[in-house]
């Protein structure tokens, strides 16, 4: 049966294990997300890593040094608040009308009482904080599979389905419609720098704890998205 | 007739405390007690003193060892692949992986040690397994950390941690599977040895936790 049958003790352990391998083995029966572009993806992964350490992180650090944390949290709140159309449209497309209503209440409440969304008074009321939905998740709930794994330059881990979703999100983001184009791009970049300044160390610690960082991030992304779609 | 409701109430009053200790409560208490112990030590103002650092680390190790069932985790993380390991290799793997997980878990929780931990619900996943939800609330976000625990040999032990919906065991399993596709168990062990024995860069993490110790000290003094 296995190489462990030579001692009684090991066999006992083995049996106990076999009784409840259940949930993980079940998961493995589900087809894995393929990675036909692995070589290219690993290249882009290396580039993103370089970009993070040599550019994004130093910029975010410098920005964080001159901007107090509470201000950065407000900025993050503001950007989250104006991303309301993305969540609203995707709630509707997923027939989650209750969430659409809750999200609308949050948007109205934070835009007014929370002064254009810089503050987050809705945080105190758990019903006003539905889980955010995006276009990739909508495709997922419609039964569309991941396709295959893609690492996008700068944006990071994604799949074929979620990359199309990112394009959908882009169309639903009010910031995308700011003209001229470079101001829109500047606003998006600022959002990323601001967000990064609040999460320095997260990428590093996940990378540090991995034996094969590329696979670790791939698996984490797939698991994370699967959970987001289920909810 | 009139007295009956009172008697029933009395019975309920005495019976309830016993029946309240359901399996989910056991799992919940187990996780909460263990995590609180870890946090208490991490927040101890004495941790800023270099001399007590090793003692603190040792204390933490004892608690974390009681929190997780490392043998179970080691077997689960290798899955079917463990059949290509010899007994000795399996022992060494279990030992190395334990040390790696300890390091990672403690570093992770150390980053969040000044934040608030909110304990959520415990739910049974099967007759002897449960999930205990916790939320770590920081200034800018909430991080859900869920513990999966199993009841065996008369006690609860953790067998997986889900951070933001990502299973630690599954994540390592995917990496080990990937490595073992092309390499031997011995190669994997070598990689683990290097990883575990690598001296941690004593840069910002040490500075960060040091800063946190001082803050705690000040807030306690004030």
Structure description:
The complex is a heterodimer of chains A (231) and B (222). By secondary structure, chain A is mainly alpha-helical. Chain A has one domain. Chain A is built from eleven helices and two strands. Chain A has a two-stranded antiparallel ribbon with strand order 1-2. In chain A, a hairpin with a 3-residue loop joins strand 1 and strand 2. In chain A, helix 3 crosses helix 9, helix 7 packs across helix 8 and helix 7 crosses helix 11. The two termini of chain A are 40 Å apart. The N terminus of chain A is likely disordered. Chain B is an alpha+beta fold and 222 residues long. Chain B has one domain: Tgt2/MlaC (Nuclear Transport Factor 2, Chain: A), CATH 3.10.450. Chain B is built from eight helices and five strands. Chain B has a five-stranded antiparallel β-sheet. The termini of chain B are far apart. The chains are: A mainly alpha (231), B alpha+beta (222).
Describe the protein's topology.
The complex is a heterodimer of chains A (231) and B (222).
Chain A: H1 8-19, H2 22-29, H3 38-66, H4 69-82, H5 84-93, H6 97-112, H7 135-141, E1 149-152, E2 156-159, H8 160-172, H9 181-197, H10 202-209, H11 213-230
Antiparallel strand pairs in A: 1-2
Helix pairs in contact in A: 3-9, 4-9, 5-6, 7-8, 7-11
Chain B: H1 4-19, H2 23-43, H3 53-67, H4 70-78, H5 87-111, E1 116-124, E2 129-137, E3 142-152, E4 155-163, E5 166-167, H6 168-182, H7 185-197, H8 204-221
Antiparallel strand pairs in B: 1-2, 2-3, 3-4, 4-5
């Amino acid at each position: 049966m296995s190489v462990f049958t030579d001692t009684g003790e090991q066999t006992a352990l083995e049996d106990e294990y076999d009784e409840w391998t259940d949930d993980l083995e079940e998961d493995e029966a589900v087809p894995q997300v393929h990675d036909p572009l692995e070589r290219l993806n690993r290249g882009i992964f290396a580039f993103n890593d370089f970009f993070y350490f040599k550019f994004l992180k130093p910029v975010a650090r410098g920005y964080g040094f001159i901007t107090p944390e509470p201000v950065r949290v407000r900025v993050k709140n503001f950007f989250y608040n104006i991303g309301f159309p993305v969540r609203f449209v995707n709630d509707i497309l997923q027939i989650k009308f209750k969430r659409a209503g809750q999200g609308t209440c949050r948007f109205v409440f934070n835009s007014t009482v929370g002064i254009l969304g810089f503050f987050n008074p809705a945080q105190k009321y758990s019903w006003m904080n539905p889980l955010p939905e995006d276009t990739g998740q909508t495709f997922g709930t419609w039964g569309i599979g991941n396709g295959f794994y893609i690492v996008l330059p700068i944006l990071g881990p994604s799949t074929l389905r979620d990359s199309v979703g990112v394009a959908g999100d882009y169309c639903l983001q009010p910031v995308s419609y700011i003209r001229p184009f470079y101001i829109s791009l500047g606003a998006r970049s600022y959002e990323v720098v601001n967000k990064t300044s609040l999460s320095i160390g997260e990428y590093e610690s996940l990378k540090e704890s991995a034996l094969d960082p590329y696979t670790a991030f791939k698996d984490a992304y797939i698991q994370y998205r699967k959970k987001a779609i289920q909810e | 007739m009139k007295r009956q409701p009172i008697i029933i109430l009395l019975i309920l009053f005495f019976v309830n405390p016993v029946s309240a200790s359901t399996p989910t409560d056991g799992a919940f208490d187990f996780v909460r007690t263990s995590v609180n112990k870890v946090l208490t030590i991490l927040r101890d103002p004495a941790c800023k003193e270099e001399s007590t650092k090793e003692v603190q680390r040792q204390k933490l190790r004892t608690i974390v060892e009681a929190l997780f069932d490392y043998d179970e985790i080691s077997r689960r993380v290798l899955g079917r692949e463990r059949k290509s390991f010899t007994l000795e290799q399996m022992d060494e793997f279990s030992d190395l992986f334990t040390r790696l997980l300890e390091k990672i878990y403690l570093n992770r929780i150390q980053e969040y040690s000044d934040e608030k931990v909110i304990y959520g619900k415990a739910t049974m996943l099967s007759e002897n397994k449960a999930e205990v939800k916790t939320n770590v609330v920081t200034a800018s976000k909430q991080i859900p950390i869920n513990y999966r625990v199993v009841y065996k040999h008369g006690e609860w032990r953790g067998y997986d941690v889900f951070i933001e919906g990502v299973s630690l065991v599954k994540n390592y399993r995917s990496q080990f599977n990937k490595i073992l596709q092309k390499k031997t168990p011995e190669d994997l062990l070598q990689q683990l040895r290097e990883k575990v024995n690598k001296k941690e860069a004593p840069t910002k993490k040490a500075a960060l936790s040091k800063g946190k110790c001082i803050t705690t000290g000040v807030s306690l003094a004030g």
